[in-house]
Structures are given as structure tokens and as C-alpha cells.
């Protein structure tokens, strides 16, 4: 009787987890309805791929016992590199799109592409390092500042956000903070927590910088400002807007090389090869596929939604992860998480309805 009751409770928890997950995706779909089917589909698939990639990495380390995250991350970037170049080779433009000269100027390459390539792996490195000195809960709290930091950088660089947009960012940040506090584990903190906070803050800042620089390449017209025109500075809007696959064709190679360099200094490739099994190999390949979809859809979402809204939507994956963990791994969902979910979705809706961003159509390769 007791076993039957526990199974019944488990089934109910799993059903609730699925319902919560479906409700979040339905909310995203409804909020983004004015932008059209393509944007709705890309955004939902982006959140789904983000959840899948994180779950795969979690299973790879905890269940499969293949603990080489830096090497796996390098393979993720390598996969994006290969897919981007195959894409342009299929269109007959590989030599054009993978050439830095396709940006129009070397200044644009050093100003945008290289900083993006450096910030991607460095943000991961700093985040992982921060977890050595602080609990994952506190790291999550600091991570909730990503949307507001991105919004400030976006505004500072010329892409204006309306009053309603700022309210949406603040509401979503409050919601993400509730979620993080609900998951916080103060017992893990120690005297080196300040060092951990420094690394975590740098990670958040680099993620914001990466998102804004990508946004400037994808939507340069959105960053044109009257002050630049008055000073005689060439506005970004006069520069060619790149497609997501063009951006990846340029940023994936240096990003992969930097990630590999970090992996070489922190992990043993020889040990990793010795520990590869059919199971771990299958998990790694699956994670590479999921991460490739995630990175490509992530840039498409940045192009469609803007850097600030993209950071807010990205936080919703935390809610989906918690719901699935509650239903299928027996973890509890604190009431703060439920409150935070409502605030986060409300923030996305306010930001979207506030007209903070201009709709954009997916650019097709010429």
C-alpha cells in the first residue's frame, strides 16, 4: 500500500511538472503572438534547447561520471563552427562569410567579433570558478542581475528602452531573484565568498556584453543615435546587419580556440579519451547537437527580440528546470520559485507590450 501511494505521488508530481512546463511555453507563445509564428517558434525552441543542454550536462557529470565540462564545452563551440561553415558552403558563400573582411572593416571585427568570442568562454570560466568559493544559490542570485545589466548597456550604447520596458526589466529581475533565493543554500558559503562574488559578477557582465555586441551586429540600425550624427560619427545603422549564421561563421573559430586553450590548461584530454564509453560518447554527441541548436536559436532570438528581452526570456529556463527536477528527480519547489515564476512572466509581458523593441524579420542570406 505504501509503495502504491509513493508511486501515485510521483505520478502526480510528474504531471504537475509537465503542466508547469507547458504553461510556461504557452505563456511565451501568447506574449510573443504579435511578433508572428517564426519568432514564437524560435523562442520556445531556444528555451527548450537551453533546458535540454543543461540537463544533458548535469547527467553527464552526475550519472555518467564524465566530468570534463571544459572539453565538452569546446566540442559544443566546435559543432557550431562546423554547422555554420557547412551552411555557408551549401549556399556557395563560405569563403565570403568566414572572411573578416565581410564585415566591411577590420575595426568592426576587432570591436565586435573578438570581444564576443572572448566573452563567451570567459563567462563560463568565471561562473565555474565562482562556484568554488560560493554556493550555487548565491551564484543564481547574482545571475539574476543579467537582464538589468544588459538593459543598462543597451541603453548606454544607443538602443533606447521605453519606460514600460524598464518596468518590465525590473519586474522580471525581481522574479528571477525570488527564484534564486528560493534555491539558495546559505550553508555552502565561507570566508572566500567575496572572491566568488567577484568572479560571478564578472561572468554576468561578460554575458551582458556578449549579448549587446551580438545585438549590435544583428540590428545595427537600432543603435543609431542623434548625438552620433551631430558629432559626425558614422552611425551603426549605416553598417550592414548580419545574419545569425554569418555572426557564428566569424565568432565560432576564435571562440572554439579560446575554449580549447582553457580546456588544455585545466583538464586532461588523454584522461578524457580513456574514460570515453559508448554511453558517455552518446551523451556528448547529443549535448553537441542540443548546444548547436541552442547557440543558433539564441542568436536568432537576439535578432528578433533584442539583447535585453533575450536575457529575460533566457531566465525562464530556470523555472522549467526546477519544475522537471521537482517532478522527475524528487526535488522540492519552494514557494519563492512559484512567486518568481509569476513575476518573471509578468516582466516579459510588460517589456514586450511596452514597445521597447522593434520587430524584425529574419534576414535571409543573399
UniProtKB/TrEMBL annotation:
Keywords: Membrane, Transmembrane, Transmembrane helix
Keyword check for Transmembrane helix: yes
Record's keyword annotation contains Nucleus: no
Localisation per UniProt entry: Membrane
Transmembrane region(s): 12-32, 37-56, 68-88, 109-126, 132-153, 165-181, 193-213, 247-265, 280-300, 312-330, 336-354
Residue ranges of every copy of the Sugar phosphate transporter domain listed in the record: 41-351
Protein topology in the membrane: Multi-pass membrane protein
Record protein name field: GAR domain-containing protein
Organism per entry: Durusdinium trenchii
Lineage: Eukaryota, Sar, Alveolata, Dinophyceae, Suessiales
